[in-house]
Design goal:
Length: 100
């Protein structure tokens, strides 16, 4: 491309920039509109599925509380003694002597 042609192309680009301005503002507006659309979709989904999700998480919370209560009530010393008497306290594939 010749020198004259390159200068002419640069002139045209500068003319377009002056005429239409910067794209930064347009990009910001596009992202703002997209974020607004996402917020609307999330709000609609929350309204539509809200009761079902509340029941699901409520049931999960109750089960978790039940398991926590059961774990707190376990006597680990007795459980460990029982495990020691059954298998000699060894895990894995044999090779060791078991308690009589």
């Amino acid at each position: 491309m010749g020198r004259v042609a390159r200068k002419e192309k640069e002139k045209q680009q500068m003319s377009k920039q002056r005429k239409f301005g910067s794209r930064k503002g347009a990009t910001f507006i596009e992202y703002a509109l997209l974020a607004g659309l996402v917020a609307i979709v999330v709000a609609a989904a929350a309204m539509f599925f809200g009761d079902d999700l509340k029941k699901l998480f409520g049931a999960t919370g109750e089960q978790t509380e039940s398991v926590t209560t059961n774990v707190k009530n376990v006597d680990l010393t007795k459980t460990l003694k029982d495990a020691g008497n059954k298998g000699g306290g060894q895990q894995g594939g044999g090779g060791g002597q078991q308690n009589p």
